[in-house]
């Protein structure tokens, strides 16, 4: 592989390795965690979390 292509490939890989965990953290923080208990229904869960 030529040096410029190798550098571009490694740069893209490094950017991906850095960006993916950052984006995953934002996605995880966007929604609250809902713990489902035995016997819960979707209606009960939505009422408990004030979902209209």
Care to describe what's here?
With 52 residues, this protein is mainly α. The protein is built from 2 helices and no strands. The chain has one domain. The longest helix has 28 residues, at 3-30. The mean pLDDT is 81.
Poorly predicted spans: none
Structural class: mainly alpha
Multimeric status of the protein: single chain
Radius of gyration: 21 Å
Task: Briefly characterize the structure.
The protein is an all-alpha fold. The protein has helices at residues 3-30, 42-48.
Give keywords.
single chain, 52 residues, mainly alpha, 67% helix
Outline the fold blueprint.
Layout: H1 3-30, H2 42-48
């Amino acid at each position: 592989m030529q040096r410029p292509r190798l550098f571009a490939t490694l740069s893209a890989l490094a950017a991906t390795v850095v960006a993916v965990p950052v984006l995953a953290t934002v996605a995880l923080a966007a929604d609250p965690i809902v713990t489902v208990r035995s016997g819960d229904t979707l209606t009960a869960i939505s009422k408990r979390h004030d979902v209209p």
